[in-house]
């Protein structure tokens, strides 16, 4: 019984019973794998672009080159993108192993 005083029987819960459940599960895993590696690629590209970018400003006869290391926020952004890309790589590899083995790496009680 829930807080409204209206209860439900476990027998009335909707469930999805189909023979294509394994195919559906495989499609979900493939979609997750594609999204994870897209995220990985975008994060690596962002970190590389920020890392390699520079700007030259001429002030009278002096030239000052600005790099990402001049701004602490950009240093943090490069490090955070690198860490997030590493996490995406680990999760992508977990998805690959899950597709190959046909099961997840962790069991439900552990999760």
Explain how this protein is built.
This is CASP-like protein. Homodimer and heterodimers. One of its GO terms (cellular component) is plasma membrane. Its main location: membrane. This protein has 111 residues and is mostly helical. The protein has one domain (10-107). It is built from two helices and two strands, in the order H-E-E-H. A two-stranded antiparallel ribbon has the order 1-2. Strand 1 and strand 2 (62-67) form a beta hairpin. The model has no long low-confidence stretch (mean pLDDT 77).
Write the layout of secondary structure elements.
Elements: H1 21-52, E1 54-59, E2 62-67, H2 72-101
Antiparallel strand pairs: 1-2
Summary, kept brief:
This protein is mainly alpha-helical and 111 residues long. The chain has helices at residues 21-52, 72-101, and strands spanning 54-59, 62-67. Strands 1-2 form a two-stranded antiparallel sheet.
In the predicted model, the low-confidence regions spanning at least 5 consecutive residues are none
From the N-terminal CA to the C-terminal CA, the straight-line distance is: 26 Å
Numbering strands along the chain, what is their spatial order in the largest sheet?
1-2
Beta content comes to: 5-15%
- Major beta-sheet overview: 2 strands, antiparallel
């Amino acid at each position: 019984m829930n807080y409204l005083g209206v209860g439900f029987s476990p027998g009335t819960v909707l469930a999805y019973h189909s023979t294509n459940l394994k195919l559906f599960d495989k499609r979900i895993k493939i979609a997750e794998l594609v999204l994870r590696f897209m995220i990985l690629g975008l994060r690596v590209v962002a970190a590389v672009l920020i890392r390699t970018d520079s700007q030259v400003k001429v002030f009278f006869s002096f030239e000052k080159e600005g790099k990402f290391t001049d701004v602490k926020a950009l240093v943090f952004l490069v490090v955070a993108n690198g860490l997030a890309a590493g996490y995406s790589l680990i999760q992508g590899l977990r998805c690959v192993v899950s597709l190959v083995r046909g099961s997840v790496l962790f069991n439900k009680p552990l999760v």
